[in-house]
Write a structure and sequence with these properties.
The protein folds into two domains: about 1-55 and about 385-395 and about 415-435, Urease, subunit C, domain 1, CATH 2.30.40; about 55-370, Alpha-Beta Barrel (TIM Barrel), CATH 3.20.20.140. About 30% of the residues lie in helices and about 25% in strands. It contains eleven helices and 18 strands. Helix 5 packs across helix 6. The chain is globular, with a radius of gyration of 21 Å.
C-alpha cells in the first residue's frame, strides 16, 4: 500500500509500549499504520528520522493567546510549532457572554493559527455562571477557569469583575452538574496578599524576590485547599494550574490519599527559575517564582505522578511592559516554544526522567484531561498525525530572536539545552522544519472535545 507520508528510521514513543524502532504511515491526516522498521511500505513523501526520536506533538493545556494583542493567533501559533507543539488550549476572557465570544475566538484562530486548538473560557460574572449549561450543550466546552485571586479591584486591569468565595462555591456546583466538564482554578488568596504586599513595599524592596515575598507559598496553598474542599463537597472536577511550591504539592498528596480527586499542572519556569534568578522583572509572574527547594519538590512530583501535566502559561508580553519597578511591571512571559526543549533537557537528560514520562506530561495526559485523547496526544492508529520529531542530542542555545513570537525576550535566553524539536507535523502536514514555519496561517483547526470525565492520567 502507498501512503501519503512515511516516517522511517526513528525511535518512536508509543503509549503503553515505550520507545520502539518503528515506521509510521500517515494517510488523510491520520496515523494509518505502525509497523516494524523497514516494513512501512511506499509513500509519496518519506521522512528519514534516523538518529531522531518521534514523539506525539505537544498538547499545551495552558496558553493565553490574544490576551495582549489581536494578532497573537498567527505569531504565537508559529512560535508553538517551532517548539513541537501541535495543539493548544487557549484561555479566553470577556465580560460579555461567551455565547458570542467563543465562536468569535474560534473564527479568529481558524483564520490565523498554524496548529490545532481548543478553548476554555474564564468565568467572571453571574451571567457566565448562569450560562454554563449553554456553553457545554451549544459550544461543546469542557473546561472553564476561575481566578480565585481576582477579588475586589484586583482584576480590573484585565476587565475582570471582582467575585467572592461564595461565587467560587456556586461555580463549583454549576460545573459539577456536567460530569464531562472541569474547572481550572488559579489559587492565590488575595485578601492575605493585600495585607502582606504593603509591608514588603514599605521595606523598600524592589527586586524579583520582593514579588515572591509579597505573594508567599502559603497563600497559594490556602486557595488550593479551598478548591479541593469545594470539589470534594460538590463533585466538581478540579484542575490546579501552574503549581509552584512544595507546600501546595504536599497538600495535594495528603488529600489525594483521602480520596479527594484533583489534577495538577506545573510550568517549566517553576522547574528552572527561582526568585533569586538574575532575570529581574522579566521573571515577574503570578503565582511567583519560588525557591530551589520548591523546584526540587516539583520535579519529584512530576516523577512520582503527583503532578500530571506541564503547561507553558504562555503570554506574548513584550519586554517594554516588563521593565521598571517590580510593582508596576506586567506579569507573564513567553514560554510555548521552549516547553518541550526545557523538559527534555532538564527533565530527561539532567534528572533521568524517562522519555515516556516526558511524553505523558506534555502530550498524553493533557489530551486525556481535556477530552482530546485518543485523537491527540498519542501515536496510535486512528489518531491525528500530530508529530514532534526531536533530536535528543542536539544542544541549542536559546535565543528569542530565533522565535516567531511577538514577544522579544525569553527568561531562558542564553540557556543551553540538550534535546530540541527539528520537525513538527499537524495532521500529517509539516508545519515546522529546522526552526522555520512552513505552513500557512489557517492550517490549524478547532478540535471538538469528547467526555473527559473518565480520563485516566498517570
Amino acid at each position: 500500500m502507498s501512503w501519503d507520508t512515511l516516517i522511517t528510521g526513528g525511535e518512536v514513543v508509543l503509549e503503553g509500549r515505550g520507545v520502539s524502532s518503528a515506521d509510521i504511515a500517515l494517510a488523510d491526516g491520520r496515523i494509518a499504520a505502525i509497523t516494524a522498521r523497514g516494513d512501512g511500505g511506499d509513500a509519496r513523501e518519506v521522512i528519514d528520522a534516523s538518529g531522531l526520536h518521534v514523539l506525539p506533538g505537544v498538547v499545551d493545556p495552558h496558553v493565553h493567546f490574544g490576551l495582549g494583542h489581536p494578532d497573537d493567533w498567527e505569531t504565537e501559533s508559529r512560535a508553538a510549532a517551532q517548539g513541537g507543539v501541535t495543539t493548544v488550549l487557549n484561555y479566553i476572557q470577556s465580560a460579555q457572554s461567551y455565547r458570542a465570544e467563543e465562536p468569535a475566538e474560534r473564527e479568529r484562530a481558524s483564520r490565523a493559527s498554524v496548529i490545532d486548538f481548543a478553548i476554555h473560557p474564564i468565568v467572571m460574572n453571574e451571567q457566565h455562571l448562569e450560562e454554563i449549561p449553554r456553553y457545554v450543550a451549544e459550544h461543546g466546552i469542557r473546561s472553564f477557569k476561575y481566578f480565585a485571586n481576582f477579588k475586589g479591584d484586583e482584576g480590573a486591569y484585565m476587565g475582570v469583575a471582582g467575585t467572592d468565595t461564595g461565587f467560587f462555591y456556586a461555580l463549583c456546583r454549576a460545573v459539577a452538574r456536567h460530569p464531562d466538564a472541569l474547572l481550572a482554578v488559579h489559587p492565590e488568596n488575595i485578601e492575605t496578599i493585600w495585607r502582606i504586599m504593603p509591608e514588603v513595599k514599605a521595606s523598600g524592596r524592589d527586586d524579583l524576590a520582593a514579588w515572591t515575598l509579597a505573594r508567599p507559598d502559603f497563600v497559594e496553598a490556602h486557595d488550593i485547599f479551598t478548591a479541593l474542599l469545594f470539589a470534594h463537597r460538590t463533585g466538581c472536577r478540579i484542575y490546579i494550574p501552574h503549581l509552584t511550591c512544595r507546600e501546595g504539592l504536599e497538600l495535594v498528596r495528603r488529600h489525594r490519599a483521602d480520596g479527594w480527586e484533583v489534577t495538577v499542572e506545573t510550568c517549566p519556569h517553576y522547574l528552572t527559575h527561582t526568585m533569586d534568578s538574575p532575570v529581574g522583572t522579566l521573571g515577574k509572574v503570578n503565582p511567583p517564582l519560588r525557591t530551589q527547594g520548591d523546584i526540587d519538590a516539583l520535579w519529584e512530583g512530576l516523577a512520582d505522578g503527583t503532578i500530571q501535566t506541564v503547561g507553558s502559561d504562555h503570554n506574548s508580553r513584550p519586554r517594554a511592559k516588563k521593565e521598571g519597578s517590580i510593582w508596576s511591571a506586567s506579569a507573564g512571559f513567553p514560554s510555548v516554544t521552549t516547553l518541550l526543549g526545557v523538559m527534555l533537557s532538564e527533565g530527561h537528560h539532567r534528572r533521568g526522567i524517562p522519555l515516556e514520562r516526558i511524553v505523558e506530561l506534555t502530550s498524553t495526559n493533557p489530551a486525556r484531561v481535556f477530552g482530546l485523547h485518543p485523537r491527540k496526544g498519542t501515536i496510535a492508529v486512528g489518531a491525528d498525525a500530530d508529530i514532534a520529531i526531536v533530536d535528543l542530542n542536539r544542544t541549542v542555545t536559546i535565543d528569542s530572536a530565533d522565535c516567531d513570537s511577538r514577544s522579544d525576550f525569553s527568561i531562558w535566553d542564553g540557556w543551553k539545552v540538550r534535546g530540541w524539536p527539528v520537525r513538527t507535523l499537524v495532521r500529517g502536514t509539516t508545519v515546522m522544519l529546522d526552526g522555520a514555519v512552513t505552513a500557512p496561517a489557517g492550517h490549524g483547526q478547532w478540535v471538538s472535545r469528547a467526555s473527559a470525565s473518565e480520563a485516566v492520567v498517570a
